[in-house]
Structures are given as structure tokens and as C-alpha cells.
Amino acid sequence: MNYFITAIGTDSGKTLFSTILCEALEADYWKPIQAGFPRDTDFVAAHLSNLVTDLIPEKYVLNTPASPHYAAEIDNVELRAEDFDLPKTNNPNLVVEGAGGALVPINNSEFVIDLPKQWDMPVILVANLYLGSINHTLLTVSELKRRNIKVKGIVFNGPSNPSSESIILHHSGYQCLLRIKQEKEINKEVVRKYASELKNNL
Known about the structure:
The protein is an alpha/beta fold. It has helices at 14-25, 40-47, 68-74, 114-119, 133-146, 162-172, 188-199, and strands spanning 2-7, 28-30, 33-35, 55-56, 60-62, 94-97, 123-128, 151-157, 176-180. It is an enzyme of class 6 (ligase).
């Protein structure tokens, strides 16, 4: 199964969850657009235990840690959704990680979320909980629904807030696939623990 990982914003936990999902499914991993360093692919590589996952090189590695449309402009690169084709792999499972939040622009008219739409790929939404995150999450949900994008479910990352989680699930209609706690350290053991839990919900 192929999944596209998006989020309600930058630093919501997409890369950590992508790693957990790759561990759970022994899936290949691909980050089409990397803007700035360190590379998310390196994080995934450092925290996986399985020996099956293939880390597919990015299509674009941009130097500036900024919105892809701006980072591409600085590097004199043109990003267009139609130029992105899913990589060929023998693995039946592929995890594709987006850049930033769902509505991060890749150019003046297209957004990151246009990629899974053109591939007809289901999305998993990662939401971190903070003051204002209900609004940001439900706005993202609304846009995903407006675009008729398939959504497998939602992942909550960070300190738990049962009230926020409950109201988000109520209004979105999505299922919660995983709750990732605020861990003191992220290592292979932690990734394996969450991967084992996630398997039951996919």
C-alpha cells in the first residue's frame, strides 16, 4: 500500500511518523522535495531496524530551509506537480513524505497536496497539539475534503490533549491511527514500539 504523509504544519512530526510507518510496513521511503538540511531521509535511515526498506533519493534537494516554492526560486529550479512520477520499486509498500503542511506551495499555483491527488494516493494526516491546533487541523481537514483526497486517518504527535483530540476526530470523521507521546529520546527501540502499535490500526 502507498501512503502520502502530510501535516497541519512544519515540524508536526511527519518524518518521525514516516519512519514508524516504514518500520511497520517494511515500506520503501521517498521524500520528493527536501528543502534545507539535515535531510529527512538521513533521519529515517538512522532510526529504522528492518533491512527491507529502500531509501529512494529525493527528486529535488533544495538548499534553503523554506517553503519549496521559495527555496526552488533561490536555487533557480522550477517545481511542477506533473513532473513528479512515483518511483518504480519492487516493494508493494511505499511511504511518501510531503514538505511542510498540506498547503505549502511548490509554485505560484500548485501545492504539496496536489502530489497525492494526482497519484490517487491516500493521505495520513499528522497533527501536533498546541493552542490553536484544533483550528489548524480542521482547516486542513476541510481542504482535504474539498479536494476529495482520500484520507486513511490521523496521527496525533506530542503531549496528549484528550479534549482536542476528541473534538478533531468528531468533526473530521477520521480514525486515529496512532498517538505518539512526547518522548525523551527518539531511537530505534521507540520507533519499533510505535510500529508494533500502528500495525493493529492499518
